[in-house]
Automatic annotation (TrEMBL), chain A:
NCBIfam families: HEQRo_perm_3TM (TIGR01726). The keyword Oxidoreductase does not apply. It is found in: Cell inner membrane; Cell membrane. This is Putative amino-acid ABC transporter, permease protein. Belongs to the binding-protein-dependent transport system permease family. HisMQ subfamily. It comes from Nitratireductor pacificus pht-3B. Residues 20-211 form the ABC transmembrane type-1 domain. InterPro entries: AA_ABC_transptr_permease_3TM, ArtM/GltK/GlnP/TcyL/YhdX-like, MetI-like, MetI-like_sf. It comes from the Bacteria. It holds the Pfam family BPD_transp_1.
TrEMBL record, chain B:
Signal peptide: none annotated. Residues 2-239 form the ABC transporter domain. SMART domains: AAA (SM00382). Pfam families: ABC_tran. Keywords: ATP-binding, Nucleotide-binding, Transport. This is Amino-acid ABC transporter ATP-binding protein YecC. Transmembrane segments: none annotated.
Length: 224, 243
């Protein structure tokens, strides 16, 4: 066994940390967009909006049924050949788009399940005071569904953060891409990749602290 | 003035409401009694379209809705002129007691938050929960939850209050406080239609009692007549069982 090159690793830390903001930005933008899109799709499915419901089902089926890597390649390498206006798309945009659509499909099903899980009496009480469906959704049903869906949605965010590493296959130099480049220069693959793994791990662990706070806040109404 | 004409509701082949005709005057308090499964709750729930009736005409104040052609806006119009007290309270689980009462005022009637909260606080005092405004439903007893449910209905200032077996889901220890509150609401001459299994209560607060069986109003009259000299043998048989 060869000893680890600790000096090299220490020197690599600040180099790789520079790419953390890009990783977090890509993941955050994808998460926010996916959450919005997923909520809309969940409402469309629960309230059975004609036409849109069918379209949503096909959308969800496709993006859940095909690998993320295939979708990313399709967006970045494939679509620009068919639609010329997409040739200007860069790797970061393509990755964020791909992550958004892919995870929106998963999240939509979680949110839909959480909405259906809200007790029927909450719908009836909302309607009985004269609320419109959008008012009922925004003020009564979605806040309660959010509490149920929150742990799952945070899990998807974790998944999104880790999946940003696939952007390096689209030529984006993010955390994983940077580690790959460094390793290719030094041939110290183990040092570079174990370091990048630990950085992802720390980011995700930090997120679980946020998750606990979020769940505490959302659970406030249910404390006895 | 409330008027119901030919209200019919079927679940599959089962006719639950069989052409109900009913008039309720302003300030009148009407109790519905009858065996289980005779359409009492369905009648209440059809009046504000929680169940969509198949046929019939419902008029509450200046809103008149035909079951067959009712639009979403007409249904909301009906719901805004009625208020509903649920058997299982059905408080908004994500809202405090104060917000449960204020919610309709803010969302549906467009009141400013501060004004709605001030009104909610008045109602909280009336229902004896002035110090529980910040409590969520999960932290309240069944009796307290139902009082908030009644408070929410009071806030609506509706032309007709629909009350569906308000004490059936309660532990016996909480029944009294809820009935006492409802008695005060009735004493204020709030127009109400109440389904109840509490016969003494129905006798105490109502101007008129309806006996329902098989999806029809079999007999109706003032409580003193209905409870002591019912004409229809079905009413008499029912009352013998429950009194």
């Amino acid at each position: 066994m060869r000893p680890l090159d600790l000096d090299y690793m220490l020197g690599l830390v600040p180099v790789l940390l520079k790419y953390v903001p890009l990783t977090l930005a890509m993941a955050s933008v994808a998460m926010v967009c996916a959450l919005a899109l997923a909520s809309l799709m969940a409402i469309v499915r629960v309230t059975r909006v004609p036409l849109l419901d069918g379209f949503t089902q096909v959308f969800i089926s496709f993006f859940r049924g095909t690998p993320l890597l295939v979708q990313l390649f399709l967006f970045y390498y494939g679509l620009p050949q068919v639609f010329s206006f997409l040739t200007a798309i860069n790797g970061v945009t393509a990755a964020v788009m791909g992550l958004t659509l892919h995870f929106a499909a998963y999240m939509a099903e979680s949110i839909r399940a959480a909405i259906i899980g809200v007790d029927r009496s909450q719908w009836e009480a909302s309607l009985s005071v004269g609320m419109t469906t959008p008012q009922m959704m925004r003020r009564i049903i979605l806040p309660q569904a959010a509490r149920v869906a929150a742990p799952t949605l945070v899990n998807y965010f974790v998944d999104i953060i880790k999946s940003t590493s696939l952007a390096f296959t689209l030529g984006v130099t993010e955390l994983m891409g940077a580690a790959q480049k460094e390793a290719a220069g030094s041939f110290l693959y183990f040092e570079a990749f174990i370091l990048v793994a630990v950085i992802y791990w720390i980011i995700v662990e930090a997120l679980t602290v946020v998750q606990r706070q979020l769940e505490l806040r959302l659970g406030k109404a249910h404390a006895r | 003035m409330i008027s119901v004409r030919g209200l019919t509701k079927r679940f599959g082949a089962n006719t639950v409401l069989d052409g109900i005709d009913l008039e309720i005057g302003a300030g009148e308090r009407v109790a519905i009694i009858g065996p289980s499964g005779t359409g009492k709750s369905t009648l209440l729930r059809s009046l504000n379209f929680l169940e969509k009736p198949d046929e019939g005409q419902i008029t509450v104040g200046d809103v008149s809705v035909d079951a067959k052609t009712a639009t979403a806006a007409e249904q909301r119009g009906l719901r805004r002129r009625t208020s509903f007290v649920f058997q299982n309270y059905a408080l908004f689980a994500n809202k405090t007691a104060r917000d449960n009462i204020a919610e309709g005022l803010i969302t549906v009637r467009g009141w400013e938050r501060a004004k709605a909260h001030a009104r909610a606080d008045e109602i909280l005092s009336t229902i004896g929960l002035a110090n529980r405004g910040d409590s969520y439903p999960a932290a309240l007893s069944g009796g307290q939850q139902q009082r908030v449910g009644i408070g929410r209905a009071m806030a609506a200032d509706a032309e007709l209050m629909l009350i569906d077996e308000p004490t059936s889901a309660l532990d016996p220890e909480w029944v009294d406080e809820v009935l006492q509150l409802l008695k005060r609401v009735a004493d204020a001459r709030q127009t109400m239609l109440i389904v109840t299994h509490e016969m003494q209560f129905a006798r105490d607060i109502s101007d008129r009692v309806l006996f329902m069986d098989g999806g029809r109003i079999v007999e109706q009259g003032p409580p003193e007549v209905m409870f002591s000299r019912p004409k229809d043998p079905r009413t008499a048989a029912f009352l013998r069982k429950v009194l």
